[in-house]
Amino acid sequence: MNTFERIAILEKSISIKTDGHNEQELAEYLKKILKDHNIESTEIPFATGRSNLIVSMGHGDRILGLTGHMDTVNTGPLSDWKSDPLVLTDVEGKLFGRGTSDMKGGLVALIIALIEIKDEGIDLGGQIRLLATGGEEKGQLGSASLLGHQLISDLEALIVAEPSRLVNHQSGTSTQFAIFGQNGVLDFEVISKGKSAHSSMPDLGINAIDNLQEYMNQQKKYFDEMAGINDSVLGKIIPVNSIISGGEQINSVPAYAKLTTKVRTTTTVNSKRIITDLKNIIREMNKFSDMNLEFNVLRQLDPVVTSKDSPIIKLVSMYGQKFFKQKINLRTVAGTTDAATFISENNRMDIVQIGPGNDSSHMANEYIFQQDFLDYIDFIKKIIISYLND
Asked: Catalytic: which of 136, 302, 350, 366?
């Protein structure tokens, strides 16, 4: 493909609105493009109008996985955008549009790489399997729906094309990273149940908000202690109280209150440990007659960590310098990707996150450098060919 053809596929993909719905339309477009180049693909629906797209190429026992998601976050207020977020707009080498960075740019680059490998008749010494998912931004719904389909358990390695570049806004250049580790996730809620009464007679009621506040003090003390434990790879846990609610009206003692918390976990301070410890705190607090606390796990994903000495990390480091003309720094991130869902079915595969997107993700006026996008296509082709033929 020439540059115009490559950009045209990204342009069409950006024009298809997929902010938490409608991934099926994008999947069908990509499926048609692939079929035009004699590459078969399969849609796997997971909700009305929402699909994952699976692409397989090559033969052999060694299988290299590629993954990217088709959905985006919402555009936000259109007044914050300098151009239409659903129209790919080139301004001095920057391609603006919702999803350019996170992560239609990375996903389209993977699609184009497969097409060019096919068109060039390159012989692969194994298989490529692309998992294009939906619903990643809001709960990783698409990747979760792929569990049990025998698409993940046999992968030897997985490349996640999520954004992994940082932009220097003074020089106008971007730095490419490769991510070898990501924190886990624990989302939970604590519910406090009390007894309603008139606000003029609070002694007749049990204040659920006050009791929840007592628990929050204990939780803060616990997380302050856990934050002192440094994981050798992922560092310290990151807890955030995200939502708090309670009460119904100002003239009543509240009978209900709820706290929702997200924790970015590490291998050392993992979800299992935190859940056990917080349940023990609640068990002790519930021994008091006025206290009625309940703990519920909402979401739990393990950390993802791959050795820096793994074959896929070594290849990315070696060829990254050639194609991006800079040394590839290896790092970890607190954020999570579909890989965290996939490892529940295959924790043996090596995983690396490297993509052409940058830190403009989720912002108004999101963009990707055109040259980063084009370079990444050539880079990922080389990684695929080298990994399966070495």
From this structure: 136
CATH number for region 3-183+303-389: 3.40.630.10
**Two tokens at 321?**
């310098």
Domain boundaries, the chain: 3-183+303-389, 184-301
Which CATH code of 3.40.1260.10, 3.30.70.360, 3.40.50.2300, 3.40.50.1240 fits the domain covering 184-301?
A: 3.30.70.360
Residue 267 token pair? 């291998």
Predicted confidence at residue 194, as pLDDT, reads 98
Q: Which of 23, 71, 156, 162 is catalytic?
A: 71
DSSP string spanning 337-375? -THHHHTTT-SSSEEEE--S--TTTTSTT-EEEHHHHHH
Taking the C-alpha atoms of residue 333 and residue 356, their distance in angstroms, rounded to an integer, is: 16
Q: How far apart are CA 126 and CA 89, in angstroms?
A: 38
18-45 confidence digits (pLDDT tens): 998 899 999 999 999 999 999 999 999 9
366 is catalytic: no
Alpha carbon distance 267, 183 (integer Å) = 8
Q: What is the pLDDT of residue 390?
A: 77
Tell me the longest C-alpha to C-alpha distance in the chain.
Answer: 81
Active site residue 71: yes
Place of tokens 């002192």: 228
